[in-house]
Amino acid sequence: MTTLSEVANHAGVTPATVSNVLRNRGRVSNETRQRVLDAIDALGYRPNLNARALAEGRGPTLALMVSSIANPFYPEFALAAERAARAHGSFMLLCNTNDDTATAHAYLNQLAGSLSQGVLVMNGNLDFDVLRQSRCPVVLCMWEKPHESPGIPCIAVDFYLAGQLAAQHLLALGHQAIGIVVGNGKGGIHTSRLRGFTDAMAAAGVEFAPELIETVPDTVQGGYDGGQTLLQRHPQLTAIFATNDLPAIGVMHAATDLGLRIPADLSVMGITDIQMAQESRPALSTVAVPTQEAAELAVSLLRTLVGQEPRAAHGPHQMLVTSEPVLVPRASTAAPRAASTRSD
Amino acid sequence: MTTLSEVANHAGVTPATVSNVLRNRGRVSNETRQRVLDAIDALGYRPNLNARALAEGRGPTLALMVSSIANPFYPEFALAAERAARAHGSFMLLCNTNDDTATAHAYLNQLAGSLSQGVLVMNGNLDFDVLRQSRCPVVLCMWEKPHESPGIPCIAVDFYLAGQLAAQHLLALGHQAIGIVVGNGKGGIHTSRLRGFTDAMAAAGVEFAPELIETVPDTVQGGYDGGQTLLQRHPQLTAIFATNDLPAIGVMHAATDLGLRIPADLSVMGITDIQMAQESRPALSTVAVPTQEAAELAVSLLRTLVGQEPRAAHGPHQMLVTSEPVLVPRASTAAPRAASTRSD
DNA sequence: TTGCCTTGATTAAGCGCTTAATCAACATCC
DNA sequence: GGATGTTGATTAAGCGCTTAATCAAGGCAA
């Protein structure tokens, strides 16, 4: 592994000069610069990023902590976040907590402040106090907007509105008998989606029975189980809303297995608009959330917090809200069989 | 940020001693050790991993390079790989190349040898020469076994056998009119699966028309398009085999959209057994590949290459083969309508 | 010619940690 | 009672890079 000084020798200058041409600082004559550049690729030199990090007091990496990269939502976010980080020359360290608080804290303890300059957190189930006491900046991603700020810099999405949009879509189609499958994300992650939905129902004067709500794990299987329970207990349902796409897809499977046709016999919708939503059959109606924008905002905010980006970019806010979710009607929703579609 | 020396002061010893207790090396009396330990958590000290990396000449991170973490197969591999790395105290750096060779090379150049000690590569479409010249060890993951070794340490899976198993399953059910959708992974990544399949067909004496092969992108959409083309052009098909689960799922969608019932009218199968395969409806018959094992082997091999694990663990081999793929019959395959099931 | 500014490079200290070499103090052995 | 070991700690060099401070050498004005 060639070092900076070897390059310096080869070019007949001092290490400081090489460093200067590398970083475009200080004064270097064009002639010298060229000699250094030549030496660099003659020797195939690459800077040692650890040494640089040590000297600069900060490394080139950010971290993203998710509960499990196997949950299809995270990769989409991770991809965008990584791209954003790379655009600024940072690498992205991936951390799977497997929904284990201890693991998460271990990561936070080990990474924070040395390996990674800052961390993006997508785990609802973390102790906020721990995050606040992190030794390096933390940005909480995909916070649910109407909740009060957790006292941690965060990127929020208006999930309350998302819930409302979902309800309005179903109501507009003429559904009245609607079941709900809500993800049991720790920290009540899905409560605002639920409130948005039920509030919109109430506003439309539609009666709402609490036994029509099933709380399940935020997975396809969870949605499957919840959907099955709901459909068996309440055959009159004409639509089911899930607070997330994954369980919504599970609901579709459950309905199919029970011999129901979607959307003829049952309308199903979710929230998020993950890739799978448009790839499922029937394609899932959902409320799209600006994942990519959230990821970019998150990286940007984190960068200002670690002092790499001028603060002015966002002002002093600790909570950045993305643009609004938008309804994406697809094939999984339609007017209930015996009802007329109310135009909105 | 407290440093090692501060801890040393606090405990009334020299930095060397603190380092010794931290790493359980050298001789330290129990009494001193305790004093240091107390100082450490009194001050909330955490080692600076960059400094450590610099001093030791090697950092605690490995890297995983995939073409896009949004492809559902990769997360499953990534999860296992990360877990394996963590089990040995290493962090995992995630790199998305977006199928761009230049990006991949940029990563390789920047990471290799400084930030990451070694890299796991899952990209078929990389110049092997570049990999060979990497300044740090590289392990190529999920190589296709029957191919000759690429001259790079690699983990191979017997995809030829996987193709055979798929064919045998379909043949055993009584299918004769079978279409094939093959992923166009660069570097002919799917050719051995295809060969395994066609060889098995030939061995069973089943005629095979080359126009029954559609080459498509390795995605749901690709499978959808390929399936549609195949089914429209050859309505007599009773089964379609895709070289990967993702396109297989696309094929199912295409069939459904054309009004075919699965498996009554058409059997579909894939290879890999990703999570989605068992979560799709109908559940996808497939040939399961030992992803987790491959990931663990890969990390382990990489660790021996970077010298962190005794070489003896694997001997001098440069190509490690996982245990064999296994058939996972599910709901998407059945005997063709007008045929009797041949018992095997 | 003297003094001052600019340019282009060097010097040297330091980032936080590791580790081989060294040392002091004490116990052991014949 | 000196030679020999052991134990438990210290010293000091060094990892590869950054950067403020310093310096030599011209150029230019008065």
Give structural notes.
Chains A, B: InterPro entries: HTH_LacI, LacI/GalR-like_sensor, Lambda_DNA-bd_dom_sf, Peripla_BP_I. Chains A, B: Residues 2-56 form the HTH lacI-type domain. Chains A, B: This is HTH-type transcriptional regulator DegA. Two copies of one chain form a homodimer. Chain A has 344 residues and is of the alpha/beta class. Chain A has three domains: 4-47, lambda repressor-like DNA-binding domains (434 Repressor (Amino-terminal Domain), Orthogonal Bundle); 61-158 and 291-324, Rossmann fold; 159-288, Response regulator (Rossmann fold, 3-Layer(aba) Sandwich), CATH 3.40.50.2300. Chain A is built from 13 helices and twelve strands. Chain A has helices at 4-11, 15-23, 30-43, 49-56, 73-87, 101-111, 128-132, 159-173, 191-203, 220-233, 245-257, 275-279, 291-305; strands at residues 61-66, 91-96, 118-121, 138-144, 154-157, 178-183, 213-216, 239-242, 267-272, 285-288, 319-321, 326-328. A six-stranded parallel beta sheet of chain A has the order 2-1-3-4-5-11, with helices on both faces. The first copy, chain A, has a six-stranded mixed beta sheet with strand order 7-6-8-9-10-12, with helices on both faces. The model of chain A is unreliable at 339-344 (pLDDT under 50). Chains A and B meet through helix 4, helix 5, strand 2, helix 6 and helix 11 of A and helix 4, helix 5, strand 2, helix 6 and helix 11 of B. Strand 2 of chain A pairs antiparallel with strand 2 (91-96) of chain B. The structure holds a DNA duplex (30 and 30 nucleotides).
